[in-house]
Amino acid sequence: MHALSQETGSGVALFESDGWTLTTSGLEHDNGYFIPRDEIRARRSDGLWVWPVQMAEKLWCAPRAFAEAFRRAIVAFAIEPDDALARSLAVLRDRAPVGSAGSGHGFVLVGIYADTVAGSVRPRTAVEIETDRDDALAPRRAA
Predict the structure, then answer these.
(1) Distance from C-alpha of 87 to C-alpha of 62, rounded to nearest angstrom
(2) Which of 82, 88, 125, 139 has the most C-beta neighbours closer than 10 Å?
(3) What pLDDT does 141 receive?
(4) Residue 23, beta-bridge partner list
(5) Helix H or strand E segment including 34
(6) Is the CB of residue 129 less than 8 Å from the CB of residue 139?
(7) Cα 7 to Cα 74: distance, rounded to the nearest angstrom
(8) Radius of gyration of the chain (CA)
(9) For residues 14 and 76, is the Cβ–Cβ distance under 8 A?
(10) What is the pLDDT of residues 71-102, one digit of tens each?
(11) Neighbour tally for 79: CB within 10 Å
(12) What pLDDT shows up at residue 83?
């Protein structure tokens, strides 16, 4: 559903689609998640835009719908896009879709830290199976 200039609790709706509403106050999802207008242009220390990267981590966020609403916010609030925006939206785009097969039960590593994190995740203790017992195999912690 697309709507223009409707009054909402957060201001006048400028755009509405797929769970996101752009108002004069900011960008709001149907679940109540709100990004204030003055924070839309926020950047991380590495230069990437905060919100596309932040939303890539939200399991409930549909990347395509957010990207469309975010682009509309940039235009509506006269924010100058740059190459870092394209890279930030790529982080959002490249994450596995919500609920997709092989997405690790919804947990998706994103961004420049994905390889670092994936390479450093190890079980805390090894588990060994006792095979020298006649009764049921029982897991036990390795010494």
Answers:
(1) 18
(2) 88
(3) 53
(4) 13
(5) strand 34-36
(6) yes
(7) 20
(8) 22
(9) yes
(10) 999 999 999 999 999 999 999 988 744 434 43
(11) 14
(12) 93
